[in-house]
Amino acid sequence: MRYSGWKVIKEALTGHRGWGPAWRDATPKPAYDYIIIGGGGHGLATAYYLAKQFKQANIAVLEKGWIGGGNVGRNTTIIRSNYLLDGNEPFYEFSLKLWEGLEQELNYNAMVSQRGILNLIHSDAQRDAFTRRGNAMILNGADAELLSTKQILARYPFLNVNDARFPIKGGLAQHRGGTVRHDAVAWGYARGADQHGVDIIQNCEVTGFRIENGTVKGVETSRGFIGAKKVAACVAGSSSRLMEKAGMRLPIESHVLQAFVSEGLKPVLPGVITFGAGHFYCSQSDKGGLVFGGDIDGYNSYAQRGNLPVIEDVAEGGMAIFPMLGRARLLRMWGGIMDMSMDGSPIIDRTHIDGLYFNGGWCYGGFKATPASGFAYAHLLATDRPHDTATAYRFDRFAKGRMIDEKGMGNQPNLH
Amino acid sequence: MIINHPLLGPRDAAEFVYKGDAALIHRPDGMAPDALEKFIDYGYLRDNPAGEHRELWFHEQGDRSWLVVTRNTLTHEITSVELARDVARREGRSK
Ligand SMILES: Cc1cc2nc3c(=O)[nH]c(=O)nc-3n(C[C@H](O)[C@H](O)[C@H](O)COP(=O)(O)OP(=O)(O)OC[C@H]3O[C@@H](n4cnc5c(N)ncnc54)[C@H](O)[C@@H]3O)c2cc1C
């Protein structure tokens, strides 16, 4: 079924009886050509592009809970391509371009809103760093603009630019950045994948791999064994737990990241603002809630909830530059489990086991990567070669000293 | 989270800096023939378990001692806290 304005009007006039489910609730077949483990944004996007773009068939997505229940439904929905390093920037710019055409591609309203993102500058050193980053973005075909404090105040008059510790001295803006309705991304890709014949199988947890002579033959699941020629892991925060079942140890730690939403307000915040020095970022959802967050809690966790010190830290950061926040009441807060890699960058690669592939290590920035991650992973699965924009996302980069460490923090996952 | 410091008693976890898996106490021998492989492992690969985890916490805003904390990563419950020094000695690290 195609969605359109006419369809909405027709359904409104006929009592909304013609809307079918957006995807089939499939039951597992005994075997598939491709099994994708994890029905988050990346797994569903992978299945969609594998079927649509790379014309593969006989594909299943196995999800242990329900699709969209993981990080794709827990993130703060920011998209951007403001990276510095060669291994990253072309990939994230490719992703942003895919976001720009996503709703037409999927015939699904994902509320892609290019309202712009602004990274605040507080010192000369930071201005130098952001100038360099902006130049790297422009060299890679992205957009970037350095703004003065005056230009910033014209759009965001409520900012406290005179904070004693972190006075606002300017900012790096990416006007094509913004937000996307995260749930709709999962649902849109699920519907698109389903329309191209992909089986989306929920409540089906992968509990082990069947590996014979170094080749994967299929997966053990809570719904029995399912055979497969190629198995593609794509489980974000659960990466280590899953790959351990294939005997692998990963360059990843799982950490909890919290997010917060205020009560609904009238429009007050037209774009996305990040205050990196104070561990705070914020946007306003279309429902009116201020959506904000800060740093990860910093210790290994699978608990999907965080602790109070970070909440205090985020609130303090917010109040420092954004004093009006103090008038809003907090409505909800939650946590998600991040697959923090050793250099802060992801992995999309084969493993040493034939037919077993891995996608993970997205840290707290994998939502914006969803379209490109799916595309690049599908490319790897279908052709056994990495996509042009994802050649650096290899397992062996750690051993070879080719880390992609945007922040220059070294192998301390909780600092990326 | 409250960490029951063996010398100072219960302290807010926010006073500490988290330093990762306590297996890092066992730095490989740099002179061993397989040192390269061992250091890649040591530097980059982690068990990252869901459940009980032994980990290093550094009391940066306190007495600057290093602790080995045993904590459940599914519930955040802390079941034991020891001085890293004692653990290292017991496991044959420091003389
Ligand atoms: C609070 C928060 C804020 C964030 N903010 C942003 C942001 O503003 N911008 C941004 O770009 N990124 C952000 N992120 C990061 C982003 O959400 C993640 O990097 C991204 O969603 C991860 O990919 P995914 O969507 O495929 O993961 P998920 O949605 O977590 O998908 C993984 C799926 O695998 C399933 N699974 C796990 N184990 C198994 C198994 N054994 N068998 C079957 N299925 C299994 C899980 O149930 C889950 O549904 C944020 C994350 C959080 C938690």
Descriptive key words:
heterodimer; A: 416 residues; alpha/beta; FAD/NAD(P)-binding domain; D-Amino Acid Oxidase, Chain A, domain 2; 2 domains; 8-stranded mixed β-sheet; 9 helices; 26% helix; 26% strand; globular; B: 95 residues; alpha+beta; Folate-binding fold; 4-stranded antiparallel β-sheet; two-stranded antiparallel sheet; 2 helices; 18% helix; binds flavin-adenine dinucleotide
Write the layout of secondary structure elements.
The complex is a heterodimer of chains A (416) and B (95).
Chain A (H helix, E strand, L loop, with lengths): L4 H9 L17 E7 L3 H12 L6 E4 L15 E2 L9 H18 L10 E5 L2 H16 L5 E3 L1 H7 L14 E5 L3 E2 L2 H14 L3 E3 L4 E7 L2 E7 L2 E10 L5 H5 L8 E13 L7 E4 L4 E5 L4 E12 L7 H14 L8 E12 L5 E4 L5 E5 L9 H14 L33
Parallel strand pairs in A: 1-2, 1-11, 2-8, 4-13, 11-18
Antiparallel strand pairs in A: 3-7, 4-6, 5-6, 9-10, 10-11, 12-15, 12-16, 13-14, 14-15, 17-18
Chain B lengths: L1 E4 L3 E4 L4 E5 L13 H10 L7 E7 L7 E7 L5 E6 H7 L5
Antiparallel strand pairs in B: 1-2, 3-4, 4-5, 5-6
The structure holds flavin-adenine dinucleotide.
Strand content of chain A: 25-35%
Percentage of residues in strands of chain B: 25-35%
Task: Give the tally of structural domains of chain A.
Answer: 2
Strand order of the largest sheet of chain B: 3-4-5-6
CATH topology of the largest domain in chain A: FAD/NAD(P)-binding domain
CATH class designation of the largest domain in chain A:
Alpha Beta
CATH superfamily of the largest domain in chain A: FAD/NAD(P)-binding domain
The first-level CATH class of chain B is given as Alpha Beta
- Compounds present? flavin-adenine dinucleotide
Quickly count the helices of chain B.
2
List low-confidence stretches of chain B. Answer: none
CATH architecture of chain B: 2-Layer Sandwich
- Succession of helices and strands of chain A: HEHEEHEHEHEEHEEEEHEEEEHEEEH
